[in-house]
Amino acid sequence: MSEQTLKRVDLIFGEYSNEKYKVLASTLERTNEDILQDLLESGLRGRGGAGFPTSMKWKFTAETPGDEKYVVCNADEGEPGTFKDREILYRVPRKVFSGMAICGKVIGAKKGYMYLRGEYKFMVPELMRELDSYHEHAKQLGLDFTIEIRMGSGAYICGEESALFESMEGGRGEPRNKPPYPTTSGFMKKPTVINNVETFVNVLMIMRLGPDQYKKLGTTDSRGSKVFSVSGDTPIPGIYELELGMPLDRFVDEFGDGDTKAVQVGGASGFCVPRKKFKDTVIGFEGVPTGGSMMIFNSSRSMYNVLHNYLEFFEEESCGQCTPCRVGCQQLLKGIVAVKKGEKKALYLDQLMKLSESMKITAKCGLGQSVANSFSSIVNNFKEEMIY
Amino acid sequence: MTDCKSFVQELADKYGREKASLLPILQGVVARNNYLSDTCMTDIAKELDLSAAQVFGTATFYSFLDTQPRGKYVIRVCKTITCDMHGKKTIIQSLEDMLKIKVGETTPDKKFTLLETNCLGWCHEGPAMLINDTPYSGLTTEKVHDIISEYHSKKSL
User: Fold this and answer.
1) B58: Cβ–Cβ under 8 A, 6 or more apart, which residues?
2) Same domain, A252 and A311
3) Domain boundary among A159, A179, A214
4) Do B94 and B130 have their domain in common?
5) Number of domains in chain A
6) Cβ A154–B121 below 8 Å, yes or no?
């Protein structure tokens, strides 16, 4: 264990304010410009993984003309190694609903939806109880913004925002072409803000603390704290709220089992960082971004098996709509199996690498585009394991 | 399912008859019948004024919306990386031994169906599984035995 311990933060999971929906009430008194200005100054970027500036997303949607707008909370957490949204919704659902309501006020929406993954259906009764209390308070505050929970049904791709809208509209969860972006054409083709569960909580905390206080956490490019889901070969798996912008070697010192060979940052669609690069890797938007998934592998693990597992995952979860992703995932999986068995020469890996690069450019959505992340980072760093 | 039609009507009264109500209705049927039969999907199409192909298209997209008969209790064992690393194979083996079926099969008494699924979001407590909507994590062979015995002794509701 290192002497320096990582700075633990208690922002997201911190206690509720002493009065129910107090921060929401005080925020409702403020002007929309003021609220957007605070968000801009805070530097908050989306917590689902892509890291789009939240203030911009809200501003664009607010500026799009239209009477009918929506707020959607993306709780379709499906990235392998991620379980932080479940914990947030379990421990501080009130903060999530408050954040959504603030968004509703700013963009002029009357209706919000939470799209919760089917795997978390067991949480619904508890969430409904909090939601009833929210609706009571909203009424008292004279706020015309209601929230409804919609369930997913076991499809990873529905975490992609436009696939999520398709699913909510009753269709197959197949991503749409972009543009138009949700800020102009989202749920029901209406202007929509869609944010991750954790992003809404961050908004509320910025409203409570003010941007200056919030900015003290993290680095210039990665403001605030982040909830990490730590799993794999670690003696202390679980949920940790840490400052953004930390070097990976310190993370490994704290969470590894002393024999860490690689860390998968950002889940199956993220990057695999080998031991020799721990020192130079920063976790955050300036380095390796993550939606929170941190999977640790020690030297007893075969990276071939890890990659095989990811590719099986992608092959099954690809919606099948566009050829690069549908066929690409299948061929990458077949390809590494063939190389391992000796049916193909090791050089074939270079061809597979090219295929993954093409998928990055040509796939329609983030799923197909990001397969190359884990593929190339594992194959490049652990080539021997792919061959022998 | 003899009375699928009236049940679909009930669900449509509750969730509405727009296309956006389709997923909640499909989920409602699966929650009661454990799967979507062809006739039931046709009933839904009629009730919502959609084509049967649209309903079938949506239903078959989602892994939790089964379109073939399933047991009363559907067991889905997570097979994604961390659960796999932490002994998913042993859990599958124990379940197969206890239930005397293979993955993908249903027990002859239609009580249990055993399936594998992708990440359930319990990576820190793997291996994990869902039985219908209830998650179980930190599984061991003993724990699986206890859980399945408990379900075995449940009277049909």
Assistant:
1) A170, A171, A172, B22, B23, B26, B65
2) no
3) A214
4) yes
5) 3
6) no
Give the range of the structural domain holding residue A232, as residue numbers without chain letter: 225-298
- How many CB pairs below 8 Å do chains A and B form together? 123
pLDDT in tens, A183-230: 999 999 999 999 999 999 999 999 999 999 999 888 888 888 899 999
ipTM: 0.96
Tally of domains within chain B: 2
Judged by CB atoms closer than 8 Å, whether chains meet at B123 and A81 is answered as: yes
Q: Minimal Cα distance from A229: which residue of B? A: B124
Name every chain A residue with its beta carbon within 8 A of the beta carbon of B82.
80-81, 231-232, 295
**Which of A80, A170, A237 faces B20 most closely, judged by CB atoms?**
A170
Statement to judge: residues B81 and B111 lie in one domain? yes
A86 and B CB contact within 8 Å: yes
- Name the residue of chain B whose CA is nearest to A236's CA: B124
Q: Whole-angstrom Cα distance, residue A283 to residue A279?
A: 11
Q: Within this chain, do residues B81 and B57 fall inside the same structural domain, yes or no?
A: no
Q: Residue A165: enclosing H or E segment and its boundaries?
A: helix A161-168
pTM of the full structure? 0.96
The enclosing domain of A148 has a CATH number of 3.40.50.11540
Distances in Å between the alpha carbon of A278 and those of A261, A267, A287, B67?
A: 10, 17, 12, 46
